[in-house]
């Protein structure tokens, strides 16, 4: 005669059946690996966008500085707004034109050139209030061109953060120091 099945034996058989069942193993493994993978993927995409935008800004500054160095800006008597629009026309792919800041100064010597990242000031609505210089210089002058943009970054997964400003954004800047070509 067989023994009656007790509650303890039933529990043991259920636990054993649960432990032997592998139907949900793939879902559990994906849950363990999926979250870190997605976090890494988001961090990679954000890093790519920041570096791509920075490289685009570098390229645009080189092209824009060539306009100044060859005297095209001076001969066309471009205003600061016109020059900023010329820069913006080349960079519309990733940047909002209203956020581009252009600073152009003449330096008295190579050692006095200022290519450092500026400290930005903001008004109560978060708009930049800095006043930027605009002096394309004359033939033979040493000119420093800085183009800046405040790039919005989001706090990435696992604390990954590319911001370099207190408001959580990233100030991107590219600069070029050059000597204007002599006049003809």
Give your account of this protein's structure.
The protein is an alpha+beta fold and 184 residues long. The protein has one domain (13-180). The protein is built from 4 helices and 3 strands. The chain has a 3-stranded antiparallel β-sheet with strand order 1-2-3. The radius of gyration is 29 Å and the shape is rod-shaped. The N and C termini lie far apart (117 Å).
Q: Quick recap of the structure?
A:
This protein is of the alpha+beta class. The protein contains four helices and three strands; from the N terminus they run ααααβββ. It has one domain (13-180).
Record keyword descriptors for this entry:
single chain, 184 residues, alpha+beta, 3-stranded antiparallel beta sheet, 4 helices, 15% strand
Number of domains: 1
The ordered string of helix (H) and strand (E) elements is HHHHEEE
- Span between N and C termini? 117 Å
The strands making up the biggest β-sheet line up spatially as 1-2-3
Largest sheet data: 3 strands, antiparallel
Round the Cα radius of gyration to an integer and report it.
Answer: 29 Å
Into which percent range does the helicity of residues fall? 40-55%
Domain TadE-like: 24-64
Transmembrane segments: 30-53
Keywords: Membrane, Transmembrane, Transmembrane helix
Pfam families: TadE
């Amino acid at each position: 005669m067989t023994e009656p099945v007790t509650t303890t034996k039933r529990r043991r058989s259920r636990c054993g059946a649960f432990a032997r069942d592998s139907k949900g193993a793939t879902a559990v493994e994906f849950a363990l690996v999926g979250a870190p993978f997605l976090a890494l993927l988001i961090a990679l995409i954000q890093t790519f966008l920041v570096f791509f935008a920075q490289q685009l800004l570098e390229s645009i500054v080189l092209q824009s500085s060539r306009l100044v160095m060859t005297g095209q800006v001076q001969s066309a008597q471009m205003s600061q707004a016109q020059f900023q629009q010329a820069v913006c026309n080349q960079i519309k792919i990733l940047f909002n034109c209203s956020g581009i800041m252009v600073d152009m100064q003449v330096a008295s010597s190579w050692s006095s050139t200022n290519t450092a990242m500026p400290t930005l000031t903001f008004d109560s609505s978060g708009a930049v209030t800095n006043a930027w210089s605009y002096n394309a210089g004359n033939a033979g002058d040493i000119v420093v061109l800085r183009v800046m943009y405040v790039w919005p970054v989001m706090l990435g997964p696992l604390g990954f953060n590319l911001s370099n400003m207190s408001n959580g954004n990233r100030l991107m800047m590219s600069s070029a120091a050059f000597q204007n070509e002599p006049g003809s």
